[in-house]
Amino acid sequence: MTPFESPQSTASPSERPADRDTHFEVEQFYYREAGLLDDGRYADWLDLLADDLEYWMPTRTNRLRRQQALSIAARGEAAYYDETKESLAWRIRRFDSGMAWAEDPPSRTRHMVSNVVVHHVDPARTPGSTERDLVVRSAFLVYRNRLERDENVFVGSRTDLLRRTERRFQVARRTILLDQNVLQSKNISTFF
Q1: Which of 6, 56, 86, 180 has the largest count of CB atoms under 10 Å?
Q2: 41: closest CA among 51, 32, 52?
Q3: Greater confidence, 3 or 108?
Q4: What does the DSSP 8-state code read for residue 166?
Q5: What is the pLDDT of residue 62?
Q6: pTM here?
Q7: Strand, coil or helix: what is 27?
């Protein structure tokens, strides 16, 4: 099982922690990404995503302790997002067209990223990866305000496969796990 098949998994002991410089580079990448999202620069954000992107946010349910393995939807089951780069580009074009009523006027967001843990990928454990790729787990808090009184707070974790290209990192896979299992927001048009 790879870190992307189980949203709650962490890096395995066989995955080597990244050095300090790589860790710093990854954190700066995430801060830049958060700034692009908060500034509504979605086309620029899209450039940070790999062409073969898998962007997945499964739903979760309340379960007894003995059933915790079933609390998070599996691949192919219910998900808030199960996207590709192409489908995210379509969403962004829709925002820009003025036809996304839930985002007109647009939301104001603030993305906070913390608890960043970076490991080198073990290609034997993560199919489709190379030794240059990184598995990164982080925590996030996203605050969203729209109109006068609509406020939402989303809290959770992300597990990413970051691919190092010649110029920069790109997100090749992102698994997002919200801590909430019932969303109080009227819609979910925020990127994580």
Answers
A1: 56
A2: 32
A3: 108
A4: S
A5: 81
A6: 0.89
A7: helix
Sign of CA dihedral 180, 187, 145, 88: positive
- How far apart (Å, rounded) are the C-alpha atoms in residues 7 and 66? 18
**Structure-token pair, residue 186:** 């009227």
Per-residue confidence band for 4, with pLDDT thresholds at 50, 70 and 90: low
pLDDT at residue 181 tops 90: no
110 pLDDT tier (thresholds 50, 70, 90): very high
Q: Are 163 and 48 in contact (CB under 8 A)?
A: no
Helix or strand (DSSP H, E) at 153? strand 150-164
CA–centroid distance for 25 within its chain: 18
| Beta-carbon count within 10 A of 123 CB | 13
- Could you say which of 3.10.310.10, 3.10.450.50, 3.30.70.120, 3.90.800.10 is the CATH number of the domain covering 20-178? 3.10.450.50
- How far from 167 is each of 92, 121, 130, 145, 164, CA to CA, in Å? 24, 19, 17, 34, 8
Asked if residue 159 lies in contact with residue 7, where contact means CB atoms within 8 angstroms, the answer is yes
Matching residue, tokens 């199960």: 82
pLDDT band at 85 (very low <50, low <70, confident <90, very high): very high
Q: Are 158 and 112 in contact (CB under 8 A)?
A: no
What are the residue boundaries of the structural domains of the chain, listed by start? Answer: 20-178
Beta carbons of 60 and 91 less than 8 angstroms apart: no
pLDDT tens for residues 119-137?
999 888 888 888 889 999 9
